[in-house]
Amino acid sequence: MRTSDLTSKMLAYQHLKDFNSDQAVDWALEMISLGYDTPSLLILAGITKPTNFFEAEKYLLSSFIELGITLPEEHDAIVAYCRTFIEKMAGSIDVKSNLKALYSTGLAFDYEKPIFDFYLLYWAWADLDYGETYQDYVPEATKDNIGGLVTNRAITWLQNSDMFNQTC
């Protein structure tokens, strides 16, 4: 089942402090473009932005039911959401902003332990952006190689992704 990039965020929406229900409309549009067609999905896609949270939520939840998607428990939802950032970094997609999003999400849910290496990389990158030529978080990191270090760490993390599920 191929889904939208926003699916993991939609499945975690109840637990995200920064959730914007306008993204539910974006998700519905992406799902329709992928060939999914349910009554609630079509209604959700047609809601005008800015959305009313409660209206969007009603059709989002109905869409899940119609698509046979079960909302995961909080831990599983957040793990899947964090994983999307790591997958993008592993694919060298907008590495810096995905690192920031992973850092923010992990911090909000106190999931520091399984993604601690990414915290160090985030802080190192921040210092390098601030103009520091050396920082203590990741001594081998420079302004020229920090993106590659993050990408390589994401690839390694995905290869060993069992540790995230076990340690959260």
Task: Summarize the SSE layout with pairings.
Blueprint: H1 7-12, H2 22-33, H3 39-45, H4 53-67, H5 74-90, H6 95-108, H7 116-130, H8 146-159, H9 162-167
Helix pairs in contact: 2-3, 2-4, 3-4, 5-6, 5-8, 6-7, 7-8
Radius of gyration: 18 Å
Give the helices and strands as they follow along the chain.
Answer: HHHHHHHHH
Query: Oligomer, anyone?
Result: single chain
Distance between the termini: 27 Å
Low-pLDDT regions: none
Give the DSSP E fraction (strand runs of 2 or more residues). under 5%
Using the alpha-carbon principal axes, give the shape. Answer: elongated
Q: Describe the largest sheet.
A: none
Q: What is the total tally of β strands? A: 0
Which percent range fits the helix content? Answer: 55-70%
Specify the number of helices. Answer: 9
Mean pLDDT: 90
| Structural class label | mainly alpha
Report on the architecture of this protein.
The two termini are 27 Å apart. This protein has nine helices and no strands. Helix content is 63%, strand content 0%. With 168 residues, it is mainly α. The mean pLDDT is 90.
Care to give the gist of this entry?
The chain is an all-alpha fold and 168 residues long. It contains nine helices and no strands. The protein has helices at residues 7-12, 22-33, 39-45, 53-67, 74-90, 95-108, 116-130, 146-159, 162-167.
